[in-house]
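Comment thread on ticket #2218

A.B. wrote:
> Attaching the input chain for the structure job we discussed in standup.
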Amino acid sequence: MSRKLDILEMARKLFNESNTQAVTTNHIAKAMEISPGNLHYHYKNREEIIRLLYKQMREAMTLSIEDLPQTLEELSEHQKILIGIQWEYRFFFREILFLFSRDSELEKMYIIDNIAHRSRIRMTMVRFVENGELSIDDDATLEYVTDAILMAWQFYTSLMQTLGRPLSRQSAEEALQYTTNAMKPFKTV
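C.D. wrote:
> Ran it. Output below, let me know if you need it in another format.
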């Protein structure tokens, strides 16, 4: 692995263990046993590192329209993969709004990606209606289900934190139950 990728991996590890506010580029350099100057040779600042980690996560999570799940069973399998990725980048979901307050470039990137992600969720829900697995007969309900799924994915970590519950791989997997339950009243099979 290249030095640049090693730095990103160490940063992700430290951000997940603590948080992005507490972990400076100096902390990352120390954990890597390199000088801060060496780290800054590769990355200008912490925000650049976070943006690159976000891009890695986005690339790992995003499916092309052609590859979207065709059935509820395929969706379930895809969500298991997403949970693993979300766990690897849990700092991002835990701190999303704070990160936006510190980096407008990240916020703009995320909003564009999130709108596209919402659109893919909606397309998937429409596909499930068309193939008879869901029965949703009005656009308002379709929008509600789409948004409920999106909110569960993006903010479940924050919900756990505000309830004083420890974040674990298992609690991250509980987000799946929320997405499944958002569709449950509309399932036909």
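A.B. wrote:
> Thanks. Noting for the ticket: The chain has a mean pLDDT of 94.
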